[in-house]
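input
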Amino acid sequence: MKVRLFFEGAGLAILALLPAMWVFLLPDHLVAYHNPRPVSTVAGALALDLFIATAVAFLLFALLEHLDRPWISIVWAAVIAWVAVRAINVVIFFLNYYDVENVPGRKQKAAIQLVICVAVFLLWWRFRGKFQACVRTVKMGLALLGCCIVWMLPQMVLFALHVPAPDVSAFIKPELAAAQPSSGRIVWILFDELSYNQLFDHRQPDIQLPNFDRLRNKSVIFANVQPAGSFTDIIIPSLFLGRELDAIRSSFHGDLYVHPKKGRRWELFHANETLFDDARQSGWSTGIAGWYNPYCRILSSVLDWCYWDAINPYEHGLSDQKSTLANAYGFFRDLTLSRITGPAAALQFAISIHAQEYNNMLSAATALVRDERVRFAFIHLPVPHPPGMYDRHTHAFSGRGTYLDNLVLADRTLGVLLDEAEKTASASHTTVIVSSDHSWRVGMWRMNSTTWTPEEERATGGEFDPRPVLMVHFPGETSGETISRPFAEIKTRKVVDSMLQEKVRSESDLNQWLNWK
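output
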Protein backbone atom coordinates (compact mmCIF):
# COMPACT_ATOMS: atom_id res chain seq x y z
CA MET A 1 0.00 0.00 0.00
CA LYS A 2 2.70 2.49 0.99
CA VAL A 3 4.72 1.62 -2.10
CA ARG A 4 1.70 2.39 -4.30
CA LEU A 5 1.11 5.69 -2.52
CA PHE A 6 4.78 6.58 -2.92
CA PHE A 7 4.68 6.09 -6.68
CA GLU A 8 1.39 7.98 -6.94
CA GLY A 9 3.03 10.86 -5.09
CA ALA A 10 6.08 10.65 -7.34
CA GLY A 11 3.82 10.80 -10.40
CA LEU A 12 2.15 13.96 -9.09
CA ALA A 13 5.54 15.53 -8.34
CA ILE A 14 6.93 14.65 -11.78
CA LEU A 15 3.89 16.14 -13.48
CA ALA A 16 4.33 19.35 -11.50
CA LEU A 17 8.08 19.73 -12.12
CA LEU A 18 8.49 18.21 -15.60
CA PRO A 19 8.63 21.50 -17.60
CA ALA A 20 11.55 22.61 -15.41
CA MET A 21 13.31 19.22 -15.29
CA TRP A 22 12.87 17.91 -18.80
CA VAL A 23 16.04 19.41 -20.30
CA PHE A 24 18.07 17.43 -17.76
CA LEU A 25 16.20 14.21 -18.58
CA LEU A 26 16.66 14.23 -22.34
CA PRO A 27 19.37 11.93 -23.73
CA ASP A 28 20.74 14.75 -25.91
CA HIS A 29 22.43 16.58 -22.97
CA LEU A 30 21.86 19.90 -24.77
CA VAL A 31 21.31 21.69 -21.47
CA ALA A 32 25.04 21.25 -20.81
CA TYR A 33 26.00 21.80 -24.45
CA HIS A 34 24.47 25.29 -24.61
CA ASN A 35 25.78 26.53 -21.26
CA PRO A 36 29.29 27.88 -20.75
CA ARG A 37 28.96 27.34 -16.99
CA PRO A 38 28.30 24.10 -15.05
CA VAL A 39 24.62 23.23 -14.56
CA SER A 40 25.28 21.13 -11.47
CA THR A 41 23.63 23.37 -8.86
CA VAL A 42 20.48 23.75 -10.97
CA ALA A 43 20.20 19.99 -11.52
CA GLY A 44 20.91 19.32 -7.85
CA ALA A 45 18.20 21.77 -6.77
CA LEU A 46 15.62 20.16 -9.05
CA ALA A 47 16.58 16.70 -7.78
CA LEU A 48 16.08 17.91 -4.21
CA ASP A 49 12.78 19.59 -5.12
CA LEU A 50 11.58 16.40 -6.82
CA PHE A 51 12.34 14.40 -3.70
CA ILE A 52 10.56 16.91 -1.44
CA ALA A 53 7.55 17.21 -3.75
CA THR A 54 7.27 13.41 -3.87
CA ALA A 55 7.31 13.25 -0.06
CA VAL A 56 4.62 15.94 0.23
CA ALA A 57 2.41 14.25 -2.39
CA PHE A 58 2.89 10.89 -0.63
CA LEU A 59 1.65 12.42 2.61
CA LEU A 60 -1.32 13.95 0.77
CA PHE A 61 -2.39 10.60 -0.69
CA ALA A 62 -1.82 8.89 2.66
CA LEU A 63 -4.10 11.46 4.28
CA LEU A 64 -6.78 10.85 1.63
CA GLU A 65 -6.80 7.20 2.62
CA HIS A 66 -8.11 8.22 6.09
CA LEU A 67 -10.56 11.00 5.22
CA ASP A 68 -14.32 10.59 5.32
CA ARG A 69 -15.92 9.67 1.99
CA PRO A 70 -17.47 13.10 1.13
CA TRP A 71 -14.15 14.86 1.64
CA ILE A 72 -12.24 12.22 -0.31
CA SER A 73 -14.40 12.69 -3.40
CA ILE A 74 -14.15 16.49 -3.26
CA VAL A 75 -10.36 16.44 -2.93
CA TRP A 76 -10.04 13.82 -5.66
CA ALA A 77 -12.18 15.94 -7.97
CA ALA A 78 -9.72 18.80 -7.47
CA VAL A 79 -6.74 16.48 -7.95
CA ILE A 80 -8.18 14.99 -11.15
CA ALA A 81 -8.93 18.43 -12.59
CA TRP A 82 -5.39 19.60 -11.78
CA VAL A 83 -3.80 16.46 -13.21
CA ALA A 84 -5.83 16.72 -16.43
CA VAL A 85 -5.10 20.42 -16.94
CA ARG A 86 -1.44 19.94 -16.09
CA ALA A 87 -1.15 17.00 -18.47
CA ILE A 88 -2.65 19.08 -21.30
CA ASN A 89 -0.22 21.91 -20.54
CA VAL A 90 2.73 19.51 -20.61
CA VAL A 91 1.59 17.98 -23.93
CA ILE A 92 1.22 21.44 -25.49
CA PHE A 93 4.59 22.44 -24.04
CA PHE A 94 6.30 19.57 -25.87
CA LEU A 95 4.29 20.11 -29.05
CA ASN A 96 5.49 23.70 -28.97
CA TYR A 97 9.09 22.57 -28.72
CA TYR A 98 9.07 19.82 -31.32
CA ASP A 99 6.50 21.12 -33.83
CA VAL A 100 6.81 24.91 -33.84
CA GLU A 101 4.07 25.66 -36.37
CA ASN A 102 1.31 23.18 -35.46
CA VAL A 103 0.38 23.81 -31.84
CA PRO A 104 -2.90 24.97 -30.30
CA GLY A 105 -3.24 28.71 -29.80
CA ARG A 106 -3.71 30.18 -26.33
CA LYS A 107 -7.49 30.50 -26.82
CA GLN A 108 -7.74 26.86 -27.81
CA LYS A 109 -5.61 25.94 -24.83
CA ALA A 110 -7.85 27.89 -22.43
CA ALA A 111 -10.97 26.33 -23.98
CA ILE A 112 -9.56 22.82 -23.55
CA GLN A 113 -8.72 23.50 -19.91
CA LEU A 114 -12.22 24.89 -19.23
CA VAL A 115 -13.88 21.89 -20.84
CA ILE A 116 -11.77 19.53 -18.72
CA CYS A 117 -12.69 21.29 -15.47
CA VAL A 118 -16.41 21.32 -16.34
CA ALA A 119 -16.31 17.65 -17.34
CA VAL A 120 -14.64 16.64 -14.06
CA PHE A 121 -17.20 18.64 -12.06
CA LEU A 122 -20.15 17.07 -13.89
CA LEU A 123 -18.64 13.62 -13.47
CA TRP A 124 -18.27 14.17 -9.72
CA TRP A 125 -21.73 15.72 -9.34
CA ARG A 126 -23.92 13.44 -11.48
CA PHE A 127 -22.05 10.20 -12.20
CA ARG A 128 -20.46 9.02 -8.96
CA GLY A 129 -19.87 5.48 -10.19
CA LYS A 130 -17.99 6.65 -13.25
CA PHE A 131 -16.21 9.21 -11.10
CA GLN A 132 -14.83 6.46 -8.87
CA ALA A 133 -13.62 4.60 -11.97
CA CYS A 134 -11.95 7.84 -13.07
CA VAL A 135 -10.24 8.12 -9.68
CA ARG A 136 -8.83 4.60 -10.02
CA THR A 137 -7.62 5.35 -13.54
CA VAL A 138 -5.88 8.56 -12.47
CA LYS A 139 -4.24 6.83 -9.52
CA MET A 140 -2.96 4.08 -11.82
CA GLY A 141 -1.68 6.65 -14.31
CA LEU A 142 0.11 8.62 -11.58
CA ALA A 143 1.68 5.43 -10.20
CA LEU A 144 2.94 4.43 -13.65
CA LEU A 145 4.35 7.91 -14.23
CA GLY A 146 5.82 7.83 -10.73
CA CYS A 147 7.83 4.74 -11.60
CA CYS A 148 9.94 7.04 -13.78
CA ILE A 149 11.46 8.52 -10.62
CA VAL A 150 13.61 5.39 -10.52
CA TRP A 151 15.64 6.77 -13.46
CA MET A 152 14.78 10.47 -13.34
CA LEU A 153 16.19 11.12 -9.87
CA PRO A 154 19.53 9.36 -10.57
CA GLN A 155 19.81 11.27 -13.87
CA MET A 156 19.38 14.58 -12.07
CA VAL A 157 21.86 13.55 -9.37
CA LEU A 158 24.37 12.59 -12.08
CA PHE A 159 24.15 16.11 -13.52
CA ALA A 160 24.45 17.54 -10.02
CA LEU A 161 27.67 15.65 -9.35
CA HIS A 162 29.25 16.42 -12.73
CA VAL A 163 31.32 19.61 -12.76
CA PRO A 164 33.10 19.93 -16.14
CA ALA A 165 36.28 21.87 -16.72
CA PRO A 166 35.76 25.63 -17.21
CA ASP A 167 34.61 26.43 -20.74
CA VAL A 168 36.54 28.82 -22.97
CA SER A 169 34.12 31.43 -24.25
CA ALA A 170 36.64 33.79 -25.87
CA PHE A 171 40.11 33.59 -27.34
CA ILE A 172 42.46 35.17 -29.88
CA LYS A 173 45.29 32.89 -30.98
CA PRO A 174 48.74 34.47 -30.70
CA GLU A 175 49.71 33.44 -34.23
CA LEU A 176 46.98 35.65 -35.72
CA ALA A 177 48.95 38.01 -37.96
CA ALA A 178 48.06 41.21 -39.74
CA ALA A 179 46.67 40.88 -43.27
CA GLN A 180 47.49 43.07 -46.24
CA PRO A 181 44.92 45.88 -46.76
CA SER A 182 44.46 44.66 -50.31
CA SER A 183 43.51 41.17 -49.16
CA GLY A 184 39.93 40.11 -49.71
CA ARG A 185 37.65 39.90 -46.71
CA ILE A 186 34.25 38.29 -46.02
CA VAL A 187 31.99 39.43 -43.19
CA TRP A 188 28.99 37.14 -42.74
CA ILE A 189 26.30 38.55 -40.42
CA LEU A 190 23.52 36.15 -39.38
CA PHE A 191 20.45 37.61 -37.67
CA ASP A 192 18.56 35.03 -35.62
CA GLU A 193 14.92 34.55 -36.69
CA LEU A 194 14.96 37.29 -39.36
CA SER A 195 11.94 36.94 -41.69
CA TYR A 196 12.23 37.81 -45.38
CA ASN A 197 8.48 38.37 -45.44
CA GLN A 198 8.56 40.99 -42.68
CA LEU A 199 11.80 42.51 -43.95
CA PHE A 200 10.81 43.06 -47.58
CA ASP A 201 7.56 41.53 -48.85
CA HIS A 202 5.07 42.60 -46.16
CA ARG A 203 6.86 45.19 -44.07
CA GLN A 204 4.51 46.99 -41.73
CA PRO A 205 3.73 50.63 -42.66
CA ASP A 206 5.41 52.22 -39.63
CA ILE A 207 8.57 50.07 -39.77
CA GLN A 208 11.59 51.95 -41.10
CA LEU A 209 14.65 49.82 -41.95
CA PRO A 210 17.06 52.17 -43.73
CA ASN A 211 20.16 50.01 -43.32
CA PHE A 212 18.60 46.87 -44.75
CA ASP A 213 17.24 48.99 -47.62
CA ARG A 214 20.64 50.56 -48.20
CA LEU A 215 22.26 47.14 -48.45
CA ARG A 216 19.43 45.73 -50.55
CA ASN A 217 19.93 48.38 -53.22
CA LYS A 218 23.45 47.15 -53.90
CA SER A 219 23.22 43.43 -53.18
CA VAL A 220 22.05 40.14 -54.62
CA ILE A 221 18.86 39.17 -52.76
CA PHE A 222 17.57 35.61 -52.59
CA ALA A 223 13.79 36.01 -52.29
CA ASN A 224 12.84 32.34 -52.02
CA VAL A 225 15.28 30.64 -49.67
CA GLN A 226 14.17 27.17 -48.60
CA PRO A 227 15.04 26.82 -44.88
CA ALA A 228 17.35 24.10 -43.60
CA GLY A 229 15.22 23.58 -40.47
CA SER A 230 13.46 25.32 -37.60
CA PHE A 231 16.07 25.36 -34.84
CA THR A 232 19.27 27.37 -34.63
CA ASP A 233 21.40 24.68 -33.03
CA ILE A 234 20.65 22.29 -35.92
CA ILE A 235 20.62 24.78 -38.80
CA ILE A 236 23.98 26.44 -38.20
CA PRO A 237 26.03 23.21 -37.98
CA SER A 238 24.15 22.15 -41.13
CA LEU A 239 25.27 25.32 -42.92
CA PHE A 240 28.85 24.95 -41.74
CA LEU A 241 28.99 21.32 -42.88
CA GLY A 242 26.87 21.78 -46.00
CA ARG A 243 24.85 18.71 -45.01
CA GLU A 244 21.19 18.41 -44.07
CA LEU A 245 20.82 17.43 -40.40
CA ASP A 246 17.63 16.47 -38.60
CA ALA A 247 18.95 16.36 -35.03
CA ILE A 248 21.92 17.05 -32.81
CA ARG A 249 22.94 15.80 -29.40
CA SER A 250 25.84 16.22 -27.06
CA SER A 251 27.95 14.00 -24.90
CA PHE A 252 27.90 14.55 -21.17
CA HIS A 253 31.08 16.60 -21.63
CA GLY A 254 29.70 18.88 -24.36
CA ASP A 255 30.97 17.15 -27.51
CA LEU A 256 28.63 17.66 -30.47
CA TYR A 257 27.10 14.78 -32.41
CA VAL A 258 24.99 15.27 -35.54
CA HIS A 259 22.42 13.07 -37.26
CA PRO A 260 22.27 13.55 -41.07
CA LYS A 261 18.82 13.43 -42.64
CA LYS A 262 19.91 10.69 -45.02
CA GLY A 263 22.00 8.82 -42.46
CA ARG A 264 21.15 6.07 -40.02
CA ARG A 265 23.64 6.77 -37.27
CA TRP A 266 25.00 9.58 -35.16
CA GLU A 267 28.32 11.13 -36.19
CA LEU A 268 30.80 13.17 -34.21
CA PHE A 269 30.91 16.77 -35.44
CA HIS A 270 34.35 17.44 -36.90
CA ALA A 271 35.50 21.05 -37.14
CA ASN A 272 37.87 20.13 -39.98
CA GLU A 273 34.86 19.25 -42.14
CA THR A 274 33.40 22.77 -41.94
CA LEU A 275 33.87 25.78 -44.21
CA PHE A 276 36.13 27.33 -41.55
CA ASP A 277 38.70 24.61 -42.22
CA ASP A 278 38.20 25.26 -45.94
CA ALA A 279 38.96 28.92 -45.28
CA ARG A 280 42.17 28.14 -43.40
CA GLN A 281 43.26 25.71 -46.10
CA SER A 282 42.81 28.55 -48.60
CA GLY A 283 44.92 30.92 -46.49
CA TRP A 284 42.14 32.85 -44.76
CA SER A 285 42.22 33.70 -41.06
CA THR A 286 38.92 32.93 -39.31
CA GLY A 287 36.84 34.39 -36.51
CA ILE A 288 33.40 34.05 -34.92
CA ALA A 289 31.37 36.24 -32.59
CA GLY A 290 28.31 34.10 -31.93
CA TRP A 291 25.29 33.67 -29.71
CA TYR A 292 23.78 30.52 -28.19
CA ASN A 293 25.86 27.83 -29.93
CA PRO A 294 29.18 26.95 -28.20
CA TYR A 295 31.31 28.10 -31.13
CA CYS A 296 34.55 28.40 -29.17
CA ARG A 297 34.20 24.81 -27.97
CA ILE A 298 33.20 22.97 -31.13
CA LEU A 299 35.29 25.01 -33.61
CA SER A 300 38.35 25.95 -31.58
CA SER A 301 40.75 24.05 -33.85
CA VAL A 302 39.74 26.01 -36.98
CA LEU A 303 39.32 29.50 -35.51
CA ASP A 304 41.86 32.22 -34.87
CA TRP A 305 39.45 34.56 -33.07
CA CYS A 306 36.36 33.57 -31.09
CA TYR A 307 33.69 34.87 -28.72
CA TRP A 308 30.42 33.20 -27.75
CA ASP A 309 27.74 34.15 -25.28
CA ALA A 310 24.77 32.27 -23.86
CA ILE A 311 23.21 33.24 -20.55
CA ASN A 312 20.30 30.77 -20.90
CA PRO A 313 18.00 31.87 -18.07
CA TYR A 314 16.24 29.11 -16.16
CA GLU A 315 12.67 29.33 -14.98
CA HIS A 316 11.42 30.14 -11.49
CA GLY A 317 14.48 31.70 -9.92
CA LEU A 318 16.95 28.96 -10.87
CA SER A 319 20.47 30.12 -11.68
CA ASP A 320 23.83 28.46 -12.26
CA GLN A 321 25.27 31.31 -10.18
CA LYS A 322 23.51 30.07 -7.00
CA SER A 323 24.16 27.16 -4.66
CA THR A 324 22.04 24.00 -4.76
CA LEU A 325 20.14 24.90 -1.57
CA ALA A 326 19.54 28.48 -2.68
CA ASN A 327 18.19 27.22 -5.99
CA ALA A 328 15.96 24.63 -4.31
CA TYR A 329 14.43 27.25 -2.03
CA GLY A 330 14.20 29.90 -4.75
CA PHE A 331 12.47 27.52 -7.16
CA PHE A 332 9.58 26.73 -4.80
CA ARG A 333 9.30 30.36 -3.70
CA ASP A 334 9.22 31.65 -7.26
CA LEU A 335 6.85 28.89 -8.35
CA THR A 336 4.44 29.93 -5.59
CA LEU A 337 4.79 33.65 -6.28
CA SER A 338 4.27 33.13 -10.00
CA ARG A 339 0.79 31.87 -9.25
CA ILE A 340 0.11 35.33 -7.75
CA THR A 341 2.14 37.64 -9.98
CA GLY A 342 1.51 35.64 -13.15
CA PRO A 343 4.05 35.13 -15.93
CA ALA A 344 4.80 38.84 -16.36
CA ALA A 345 7.70 38.87 -13.89
CA ALA A 346 9.33 35.86 -15.56
CA LEU A 347 8.94 37.53 -18.95
CA GLN A 348 10.60 40.74 -17.75
CA PHE A 349 13.49 38.70 -16.41
CA ALA A 350 13.87 36.90 -19.75
CA ILE A 351 13.78 40.24 -21.58
CA SER A 352 16.50 41.70 -19.35
CA ILE A 353 18.70 38.64 -19.98
CA HIS A 354 18.10 38.86 -23.74
CA ALA A 355 19.06 42.55 -23.73
CA GLN A 356 22.24 41.72 -21.82
CA GLU A 357 23.10 39.02 -24.37
CA TYR A 358 22.50 41.49 -27.20
CA ASN A 359 24.77 44.13 -25.70
CA ASN A 360 27.52 41.57 -25.12
CA MET A 361 27.21 40.29 -28.67
CA LEU A 362 27.18 43.76 -30.24
CA SER A 363 30.43 44.63 -28.47
CA ALA A 364 32.06 41.40 -29.63
CA ALA A 365 30.73 41.72 -33.18
CA THR A 366 32.00 45.29 -33.44
CA ALA A 367 35.43 44.20 -32.21
CA LEU A 368 35.52 41.38 -34.78
CA VAL A 369 34.60 43.67 -37.67
CA ARG A 370 37.29 46.14 -36.60
CA ASP A 371 39.95 43.43 -36.36
CA GLU A 372 41.14 43.27 -39.96
CA ARG A 373 43.52 40.45 -39.14
CA VAL A 374 40.42 38.21 -39.40
CA ARG A 375 39.67 37.85 -43.11
CA PHE A 376 36.68 35.49 -42.79
CA ALA A 377 34.40 36.67 -40.00
CA PHE A 378 31.08 35.08 -38.97
CA ILE A 379 28.72 36.96 -36.65
CA HIS A 380 25.58 35.43 -35.12
CA LEU A 381 23.33 38.01 -33.43
CA PRO A 382 20.34 37.41 -31.09
CA VAL A 383 17.95 39.76 -32.94
CA PRO A 384 15.18 40.00 -33.97
CA HIS A 385 14.65 36.77 -32.00
CA PRO A 386 11.88 37.26 -29.38
CA PRO A 387 11.13 38.30 -26.72
CA GLY A 388 10.70 41.93 -27.73
CA MET A 389 13.23 44.03 -25.82
CA TYR A 390 13.25 47.33 -27.73
CA ASP A 391 10.93 50.28 -28.27
CA ARG A 392 11.24 51.54 -31.83
CA HIS A 393 9.50 54.80 -30.94
CA THR A 394 11.88 55.82 -28.15
CA HIS A 395 14.89 53.92 -29.57
CA ALA A 396 15.58 52.45 -26.14
CA PHE A 397 15.41 49.04 -24.52
CA SER A 398 11.98 48.26 -23.17
CA GLY A 399 10.08 45.45 -21.48
CA ARG A 400 7.08 46.06 -23.76
CA GLY A 401 8.64 45.46 -27.15
CA THR A 402 7.53 43.18 -29.97
CA TYR A 403 9.18 41.27 -32.80
CA LEU A 404 8.70 44.37 -34.96
CA ASP A 405 10.59 46.47 -32.42
CA ASN A 406 13.38 43.90 -32.44
CA LEU A 407 13.37 44.11 -36.24
CA VAL A 408 14.13 47.83 -36.00
CA LEU A 409 16.89 47.02 -33.49
CA ALA A 410 18.33 44.51 -35.98
CA ASP A 411 18.40 47.27 -38.60
CA ARG A 412 20.19 49.60 -36.21
CA THR A 413 22.68 46.83 -35.45
CA LEU A 414 23.32 46.24 -39.14
CA GLY A 415 24.00 49.95 -39.55
CA VAL A 416 26.57 49.91 -36.74
CA LEU A 417 28.41 46.92 -38.23
CA LEU A 418 28.32 48.25 -41.80
CA ASP A 419 29.67 51.59 -40.63
CA GLU A 420 32.51 49.84 -38.80
CA ALA A 421 33.31 47.75 -41.88
CA GLU A 422 33.41 50.86 -44.07
CA LYS A 423 35.94 52.46 -41.74
CA THR A 424 38.45 49.65 -42.20
CA ALA A 425 41.33 49.80 -44.66
CA SER A 426 39.99 46.66 -46.35
CA ALA A 427 36.49 48.11 -46.91
CA SER A 428 36.90 48.23 -50.69
CA HIS A 429 37.78 44.50 -50.70
CA THR A 430 35.09 43.30 -48.27
CA THR A 431 32.16 41.08 -49.24
CA VAL A 432 29.21 41.32 -46.84
CA ILE A 433 26.76 38.44 -46.41
CA VAL A 434 23.57 39.04 -44.42
CA SER A 435 21.38 36.05 -43.63
CA SER A 436 19.16 34.41 -41.05
CA ASP A 437 19.01 30.86 -39.77
CA HIS A 438 15.21 30.57 -39.95
CA SER A 439 12.21 32.84 -40.33
CA TRP A 440 9.92 34.20 -37.62
CA ARG A 441 8.36 31.08 -36.07
CA VAL A 442 4.87 32.48 -35.75
CA GLY A 443 3.19 29.32 -34.46
CA MET A 444 5.67 28.85 -31.64
CA TRP A 445 5.43 32.41 -30.33
CA ARG A 446 1.73 32.88 -31.05
CA MET A 447 0.67 30.30 -28.48
CA ASN A 448 2.38 32.26 -25.67
CA SER A 449 -0.07 34.85 -24.33
CA THR A 450 2.68 36.64 -22.39
CA THR A 451 4.77 37.45 -25.48
CA TRP A 452 2.37 37.55 -28.44
CA THR A 453 0.72 40.92 -29.04
CA PRO A 454 -2.16 42.24 -31.20
CA GLU A 455 0.44 44.10 -33.28
CA GLU A 456 2.20 40.83 -34.09
CA GLU A 457 -1.12 39.16 -34.90
CA ARG A 458 -1.95 41.95 -37.37
CA ALA A 459 1.50 41.81 -38.92
CA THR A 460 1.35 38.07 -39.59
CA GLY A 461 -2.37 37.35 -39.80
CA GLY A 462 -1.44 34.30 -37.77
CA GLU A 463 0.31 32.82 -40.81
CA PHE A 464 3.86 31.47 -41.00
CA ASP A 465 6.13 32.44 -43.88
CA PRO A 466 9.12 30.06 -43.80
CA ARG A 467 11.60 32.11 -45.85
CA PRO A 468 14.82 33.18 -44.12
CA VAL A 469 17.04 35.94 -45.50
CA LEU A 470 20.12 35.73 -47.72
CA MET A 471 21.79 38.85 -49.18
CA VAL A 472 25.26 39.17 -50.70
CA HIS A 473 27.03 42.48 -51.33
CA PHE A 474 30.24 42.30 -53.35
CA PRO A 475 32.90 45.05 -53.26
CA GLY A 476 32.13 47.86 -55.65
CA GLU A 477 28.57 46.72 -56.46
CA THR A 478 26.19 49.71 -56.76
CA SER A 479 23.00 48.03 -57.99
CA GLY A 480 20.74 45.34 -56.62
CA GLU A 481 19.35 42.11 -58.03
CA THR A 482 16.60 39.84 -56.75
CA ILE A 483 16.74 36.09 -57.43
CA SER A 484 13.22 34.71 -57.18
CA ARG A 485 13.78 31.05 -57.99
CA PRO A 486 14.04 28.65 -55.02
CA PHE A 487 17.42 28.39 -53.33
CA ALA A 488 18.10 25.72 -50.71
CA GLU A 489 19.65 27.32 -47.63
CA ILE A 490 21.87 24.28 -47.20
CA LYS A 491 23.77 25.36 -50.36
CA THR A 492 25.08 28.44 -48.56
CA ARG A 493 28.21 26.45 -47.66
CA LYS A 494 29.00 25.92 -51.36
CA VAL A 495 28.44 29.60 -52.16
CA VAL A 496 30.77 30.73 -49.37
CA ASP A 497 33.35 28.11 -50.31
CA SER A 498 33.39 29.50 -53.86
CA MET A 499 34.01 32.96 -52.42
CA LEU A 500 36.83 31.65 -50.25
CA GLN A 501 38.38 30.03 -53.30
CA GLU A 502 37.93 33.37 -55.13
CA LYS A 503 35.83 31.72 -57.84
CA VAL A 504 32.91 34.03 -56.98
CA ARG A 505 34.02 37.63 -56.56
CA SER A 506 31.16 39.62 -58.12
CA GLU A 507 27.45 39.61 -58.90
CA SER A 508 28.12 38.25 -62.39
CA ASP A 509 30.32 35.46 -60.98
CA LEU A 510 27.53 34.50 -58.60
CA ASN A 511 24.96 34.40 -61.39
CA GLN A 512 27.22 32.17 -63.45
CA TRP A 513 27.79 29.90 -60.46
CA LEU A 514 24.04 29.64 -59.82
CA ASN A 515 23.30 28.87 -63.46
CA TRP A 516 26.04 26.26 -63.57
CA LYS A 517 24.84 24.64 -60.35
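quick obs: The two ends are 70 Å apart (CA to CA).
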